[in-house]
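User: Run a structure prediction on this.
Assistant: Running it now.
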Amino acid sequence: MPKEDSYHRSSRKFFSKYDKDNKGGLNLYDIRDLVHGNGNVWDPIGWFFAAFEWGTLYALCADEHGLIRKEDIRSQYDGTLFYRVAEEHEKRKNHHSLFPKEKLGKHNLLWEQEKED
């Protein structure tokens, strides 16, 4: 069996503590427990920033079931999350435009302004 590094050990310990139902990720209740469980009584600013950090991650990565997957949490820590989110945003932006240029025709004032610039 390959030797497990400290990152994987701590990650496994983290999920065993907060992913109580073995859902494969964290929901809002798990995140609430995480923030409260790691909060310092004398550091309300730390509570706020921890809640802000996890809330932002939830807003970016929660799926249709309200879960942040383990891979998303791990990618936040290794720095690959934001590259993946940017790539997905580009795909959506190019694929599903709210105002497709072809359908607006001569009434497309936004397109006309872009062409003038």
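The chain has seven helices and two strands.
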